Amino acid sequence: MSSGTGDDEGDLTRKQRREQARGERKALEQAEAARAKRRTRLTQLGIVVAIVVVVIVGIAIASGGGGSKKTVTAGSHESNATVAEVKTLIDGIPQSGNTLGDPKAPVTLQYFGDLECPICKEFTLGALPTVIQKWVRSGKLRIEYHSLETATREPEVFKDQQEAAYAAGKQNLAWYFIETFYHEQGEEDSGYVNEKYLQGIASQVPGLNLADWTSARSEPTYANEVDADAQAANQAGFTGTPSFLIGKTGGTMQKFEYASLTDPTSFDEAIEKLLKS
Amino acid sequence: MSSSVLRKTMIVLTAIGLCLAAYLTYVHYSGVTPPCSIKGNPCSQVQKSQYSLLVGVPVALIGLLGYIAIFGSLLAPDGERARLVTMALILGGFGFSLYLTYRELFTLHKICEWCVSSAVIMTVLACLAVWRFLRGEESLSTGTISLSARQSVQQ
User: Fold this and answer.
1) What's the CA gap between A91 and A86, in Å, rounded?
2) ipTM exceeding 0.95?
3) Do A55 and B95 touch (CB under 8 A)?
4) Which residues make Cβ contacts (< 8 Å) with residue A18, sequence separation at least 6?
5) Which distant-in-sequence residues (6+ apart) come within 8 Å of B9 by Cβ?
6) Which end of chain A is more exposed for a tag (fewer CB within 10 A), N or C?
7) Which residue of B has its CA nearest to A149?
8) Pairing of strands A141-147, A107-113
9) Which residues make Cβ contacts (< 8 Å) with residue B81, sequence separation at least 6?
10) What's the start-to-end Cα distance of chain A, in Å?
11) CA–CA distance, B147 with B155 (Å, rounded to integer)
């Protein structure tokens, strides 16, 4: 009886051992399969990440390199190119103070900008040249430049640079100064605007008498003009630049919401509408 | 976190992102100024900049289509392939968000709250999608083993 029971126990133990061994083998196989699956997933993840990186780098390169901008020195190759470009754009168009265009033009566009604002640069180099060529050069539009502090951090620097532009207007060359500034605009918040920089911009303005310009900068007229612009912008409810008012010359000006900084279509439509009315 | 909860969380996040992208697409085509709490309304400036278009297609619309695709992949029956597709789409969206944020910070020097919100959602989604894909059906299989183990102990 007892030996029979012992045999049973021995059989059971062998059975249990076999079961145990089978179980361990199965567990090992499962673990190996799980490891293989994990390896496959990691490989797939790596492939997806690599594809995404290649596509995004491609998009970044195709849409134009980086954002670092350097300050251009007067007389350099880049400066000469800017001067030539600005001359081609506005040479021969009447200027008076901060206004570009025929004083009798039927439509007036008021452009509120900050010379350090990169979005204004995008507009000035994007949609504006077409607007100037199509409407200002033909005598149908005059553009007034007004100041609104947005991108410039220090109010003193803002006043200084905007007054410098208006002071060039005393010689009816403000738009050369404004265009040159935007073309050569430096890195935002890098503190690039200082006296040397402003002198550098002024020295690139064709025909500007630097001594007269320097003395005009201290006249209170231009500081008052910048303050008046701030009040006008506040009244219009502007908080960002560029912002615009448009209307018939001498008439009521209305807020103008542009659709694109680079596509002039919305400007064309607004001007055409005013010319027809 | 169970597979079901994880998937539902991702669906909710994707739905929020989809609404954001739909609004920004509307802003682009209607020309309205989006509300923005930052001085100077950089949101509007970013929306109207040259980087708001990619080969002539508004990036907001690309984002909307991306979120719709992610949403669809999350609603598909759960499986290895569906999780891979969801992860690939989300990582693509995450990479695109990174690129757009780079443009905002280093090219335009403006931050759009709407875009940042979408980028944050896409970042969280990317973490969840990678986690969901790598763990596979781990939680489900672990649950099965523990159940069978309990049964054998009871026997």
Assistant:
1) 8
2) no
3) yes
4) none
5) B1, B128
6) N
7) B40
8) parallel
9) none
10) 120
11) 13
Q: Which of A116, A268, A257 is nearest to B47 (CA)?
A: A257
Q: What are the backbone dihedrals phi and psi of residue A243, each rounded to the nearest 5 degrees, phi first?
A: -130, 155
Q: Mean of the pLDDT values across residues A147-156?
A: 88
* Cβ(A268)–Cβ(A134) below 8 Å: yes
Q: How far apart are CA A31 and CA A23, in angstroms?
A: 12
Residue contact B49–A55, C-beta within 8 A: no
Tell me which amino acid residue A183 is.
Answer: H
- Mind telling me how many Å the CA of A52 is from chain B's nearest CA? 6
CA distances from A161 to A151, A174, A226, A252 (A): 12, 12, 10, 29
Q: Given the structure tokens 């969206």, which residue do they identify?
A: B93
Contact present, A92 and A171 (Cβ < 8 Å): no
Report the alpha-carbon distance of residue B129 to residue B6 in Å, rounded: 9
CA distance B121 to B101: 13
d(CA A39, CA B140): 19
* pLDDT at res. B1: 75
Burial grade of A62 (CB within 10 A; 0-12, 13-18, 19 or more): exposed
Arithmetic mean of pLDDT, B34-60: 80
CB within 8 A of A186, min separation 6: which ones? A69, A70, A71, A116, A192, A193, A197
- Give the list of residues 6+ apart from residue A232 with CB closer than 8 angstroms, or none: A110, A112, A146
Find chain A residues with C-beta within 8 A of B99's C-beta: 56, 59-60
| A45/B87 CB distance under 8 A | yes
Which burial class, exposed, middle or buried, applies to B144 when counting CB atoms under 10 A from its CB (0-12, 13-18, 19+)? exposed
Segment A193-234, tens digit of pLDDT: 888 889 999 999 999 999 999 999 999 999 999 999 999 999
> What pairing do the DSSP bridges indicate for beta strands A141-147 and A243-248?
unpaired
Q: How far is B124 from chain A (nearest CA, A)?
A: 16
What is the distance between the alpha carbons of residues A97 and A40, in angstroms, rounded to a whole number? 70
* Contacting residues for B44 by C-beta, under 8 A, at least 6 apart: A240, B33, B34, B36
Q: Looking at residue A64, what is its pLDDT?
A: 67
